[in-house]
Amino acid sequence: MATERFAPAGFTAPTSLVTEQFRLEPLGPQHNAADLAAWTSSIEHIRSTPGYPDGSWPPLDGMTPEANLADLRRHAEDFAAGKGFTFTVLDPDNDVIGCVYLYPPEADGYDVSVQSWVRADHADLDTLLADAVATWIAAEWPWRRPDRYGR
Hints:
Elements: E1 17-18, E2 23-26, H1 32-40, H2 43-47, H3 65-81, E3 85-90, E4 96-103, E5 112-118, H4 126-140, E6 146-147
Parallel strand pairs: 5-6
Antiparallel strand pairs: 1-2, 2-3, 3-4, 4-5
InterPro entries: Acyl_CoA_acyltransferase
Protein name: Twin-arginine translocation pathway signal protein
């Protein structure tokens, strides 16, 4: 996704957001099986979520566990390098129920692109998650003009 660092030099990214309904932590290879199960169970729901307008993700035919693992490793590498910040969304039982992506903006006038999704069986958390992340960005991140894709 990102090719160069977009967080300011010296900025240390927050690694957690906790609410009563969910918790965010950096996405990594340890989430592979649960992440793959989460998004493959909810492809149509995710494709209808604001921020996924081009219809290319998630892929309709899924991914192999190895391909998903490679994707998670790339996200973890981006996080470590400050190129992008991807978080898994966990429910109170530590089951993966979604993801949050903070990456360089694609549209002019913004300083961060903010995308999120939840599993279809947790659709009631879509707006709650997006709003909690917006509040978190305003309080703890260096960006002031997030592209929330109409949220």
